[in-house]
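Final report, results section. Input specification for complex C-07:
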Amino acid sequence: MTAEIQRNEAPGGALGWVDSRLHLGPFIAALLHVRIPADAKTFYLGGITLFLFGIQVVTGTLLALYYSPTPEAAYESVLSITSDVQFGWLIRSMHHWAANLMLVSLVLHLLRIFAQAAYKYPREITWIVGGGLLLITIGFGFTGYLLPWDQRAYWATVVGTEIAGDVPLIGSSLLLLLRGGAEVGEATLARFFGIHVLVLPLLLGGLVALHLLFVHQQGLANPKRAEPRPGRVTAPQPPEKLKPFFPDYILDEVIAWYAVLAGLVILASLFPAGLEPKADPLVTPEHIKPEWYFLAVYQLLKLVPETVGVVAPVALIGIIVLLPLLDRNQEIRPRRRPIAIFLALVLLVAMAVLTYFGGQV
Amino acid sequence: MSDGFTPGIEDGGRTTAPQPRVGATGPGGFGRRRFVRYLMGFSIVSSLAMIVTPIVGFLIPTRTASGTEGGRVLAGTLDTLPIGSGAVVAVGAKPAVVVNTTAGIKAYSAICTHLGCIVAWDAPANTIVCPCHDGRFNPATGAVVSGPPPAPLTPLTTAVEGNDIYIVTG
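Structure output:
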């Protein structure tokens, strides 16, 4: 009798046909019909980062259909994508800009989490997984940068891999592993292409799934009230105001995605991805500069010995990723965390100054 | 039972905890359960090693000789490289910078010792310059004059025969 009623209430059409076989309704309901704190302010940055990753998957897959990962053909294939293939310039420029915006939104997402202390109990593991996502995104930028095989790409990779070669103890092995040989060449391009289109997307996809699972399990953090810790007596508080995740939050998120998509198309149209002369291993162009997010490290290496210039950023990334294990202060309001907020501001200013001077000719 | 436990007993909907069988773990000895646990751990570790070893081995490239074969490479002539001038030339697959100084013809590896960029000859400043971080080298000795390079440029042997300038390798 119960089964009869359920069958009658199942949606009709194709959805009903699928649901009557797989019974996915309760699973999807468990994913969507959750309630989130009404005070949660995410600025939709995590979702925007995910949306940009989706754009990267689509545009990257399209680009791979025309791209040839060999030193002889890579540059010409990118030239052909840009000038011969229909909408090729748009797809490539969107891939270029989405990569930059993805890093921007990811860092802003990280700063939002930091400011709201949402990395603290019980979300430490979610933050650490997020740190892994940041590293993979930087890896995407580094490996994708070489693929056009122009002068800028080539020399940025020479310098970048040389920096990796200065990591104490494992530097020379790391350099060889990255380049696939003594110099940046055919093996490096093949490696970077494989890592860029296979290894990193799989890793990122897996970690994103894990990250989302954790967020779903723990719910969004309320920036106005700390999570009660087990074994600690807290003063009674009024009931938390909640709102539905679906459709309220999702609708706002989708609107944000459309706004980002519009901005992306405008950026790609007004400032399309360029291409410098083909890579020449015998000539380093004057005033060569890496991509903006590596400028701070590039400038640091001009000011300090190589070992310091390499160890300092690695240590900094380690501290950021392991922050929840290092910061034991239970307070979540920024005013009650003056040291953490001050150190973060100093770091941001230092990186901005280094990036500015690194970008100067 | 093979795991050394008697099965749980159904009792009106409740299940009692399984009881270890006498003899499953010998007194002070190496019990069956512990043995199986060690065996499983060993299997997991060896399986991982079996998977990881060929992957790591595959990723490490064969170390090939990156230097050039022994011999001489024509780097230019005294006509094209008068005193006070310099040029970057290919010596096999590697670049070299050749400079005609008042102290004679000098040649160095053109790979900057800082981050691997290719240096160039800066005639107005009379120095060898790296375009990446503006490191500068003395053309007569290859020593660092200014900037972040940690070591001088690697010197190469040159030979002048008639009007021709050669870089001798190997």
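The two ends of chain B are 73 Å apart (CA to CA). Chain B is about 15% helix and 30% strand. This concludes the modelling results for the funded period.
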